[in-house]
Amino acid sequence: MRTLPLHIDGKLHLKGLPRTELEAFLQQWGEPRYRAVQLMEWLYAKGVEDFTAMTNLPKELRQRLAENTTLQTLRIERWQRSAWDGTTKLLFRLPDNAAIEAVLIPASHANGTRHRLTLCVSTQVGCPLGCAFCATASLRLQRNLNTAEIVDQLLCARKLVGEPITNVVFMGMGEPLLNLDSVIHALQIWTDPAASLLSARRITLSTAGIVPGIYRLADTGLRIKLAVSLHTADQSLRERLMPIARRYPLPELQRAARYYSERTQRPVTYEYILFDGLNDSPADADALARFVKATPRAKVNLLPFHPIDFVHPTGIAATLRPSPPERIAAFQKRLHMHGIIATVRSSHGIDIDAACGQLALSWERGYASASP
Questions:
Q1: Cβ(91)–Cβ(365) under 8 Å?
Q2: Phi and psi of 194, rounded to 5°?
Q3: 84-98, 201-215, 232-246, 261-275: least confident range
Q4: What is the arithmetic mean of pLDDT over 168-186?
Q5: 2 located within any domain
Q6: Helix and strand numbers, DSSP H then E, in the chain
Q7: DSSP E strands: which ranges in 180-313?
Q8: How confident is the model at residue 19 (pLDDT cuts 50, 70, 90)?
Q9: 97 and 184: one domain?
Q10: The domain containing residue 265 runs over which residues?
Q11: Are 74 and 152 in contact, with CB atoms under 8 Å apart?
Q12: Which residues are catalytic?
């Protein structure tokens, strides 16, 4: 799948280089390895994007960096902030005029003080998986994001709000395990001590179930959290909701999740959107509990469904409706009876373009209609 190179207008994008690659790049210029740490501290810990302000770097190096590299990748095209809960949805324009989304989700203590600010990032322009419940599916896959385009979502969001991002979730546009090289490099940059951005335990990657990618991610040593987009423990229904299930059936996915949990010693979370009359019965809860128990320390996030009528869905997608609150509560209670940790996640940004892909889709349609 096509990925934009890290060179933009002939200049190398530094935000796409993990420390080892940054060291190698600078050593080609005769610079010592520790210059990479200094540069990462300026770029990430301090958020400085003007080479002339990087005062502990030699003047000649600063000039050479300005001439041969760039720090500009993303531009915030527009953003929407929810008056209801403060959720902020960002639309980024990329160098090739493609659009992606990121979402800032604040969480506060009962007394109103902020204790977490989570950024949901994208890894692809569009998505190839065609999940029935996701608006991004209507965008189709255009290309993968390169490392710099993933990394810069965090830096741009932090600059916009003027405060640290405490958590990152790969739950935006695209399937992160289908762009794993760029994702791994982004993770290496974000978790590098010189960057002072994030620890691995504050990063979660959500996958629709790309089994080879789960094994590979487990073996990287990064030890981030894994979330599996499951939504049913019935193979035939999952194939209707998520066509990728035909390639990676539930038994294979179950084994991969167990491997990840045992290899990383991190709990695996199963994400489960509840659809009215489709996957929300007591029998569905029983089947889910049996599936989840095969993974040590696993838990379940029960999610409300954001309708995607605005993309004019067909087939099973056109029939999907949110489960009523009382049935969600009963489903959670039944999971608890089986000893499963299950949390009902609240909706965020319900007064803005909340569904994944919605803001990007509206921008793309407007941009296309305005283009010659």
A1: no
A2: -65, -25
A3: 84-98
A4: 97
A5: no
A6: 11, 15
A7: 203-207, 225-229, 268-273, 299-303
A8: very high
A9: yes
A10: 75-370
A11: yes
A12: 101, 356
Mean pLDDT of the chain: 91
Extended beta strands in the chain, E state: 7-8, 11-13, 69-70, 75-81, 88-93, 99-108, 114-120, 124-125, 143-144, 167-170, 203-207, 225-229, 268-273, 299-303, 341-344
CA–CA separation, 367 vs 230, rounded Å?
Answer: 34
Cβ burial of 207 (10 Å; 0-12, 13-18, 19+) is buried
Which range, of 19-23, 79-83, 213-217, 276-280, averages the lowest pLDDT? 79-83
Amino acid letter for position 116: R
Q: Could you tell me the strand order of the sheet in which 268-273 lies?
A: 75-81, 88-93, 99-108, 114-120, 167-170, 203-207, 225-229, 268-273, 299-303, 341-344
Q: Look up tokens 């990063």; give the residue.
A: 203
| pLDDT attached to residue 356 | 56
Contact 303, 346 (CB under 8 A): no
Q: Starting from the edge strand earliest in sequence, which strands make up the sheet with 69-70, in order?
A: 7-8, 11-13, 69-70
Give the number of C-alpha atoms closer than 13 A to the C-alpha of residue 44, restricted to the C-beta side: 30
| Residue 335: half-sphere exposure toward Cβ, Cα within 13 Å | 27
- Nearest CA to 101 out of 65, 77, 131 is that of 77
60: domain CATH number is 1.10.150.530
Lowest mean per-residue pLDDT among 179-183, 205-209, 360-364: 360-364
Three-state DSSP class for residue 294:
coil
Q: How many CB atoms are closer than 10 A to CB 161?
A: 16
What CATH number does residue 273 fall under? 3.20.20.70
- What's the residue count for the chain? 372
Q: Both tokens of residue 34? A: 């520790």
SS3 of residue 330 by DSSP? helix
Does one domain contain both 38 and 83? no
Measured distance CA(211)–CA(215) in Å, rounded: 7
Residue 284 lies in a domain: yes
| CB-based contact 276:316 (threshold 8 Å) | no
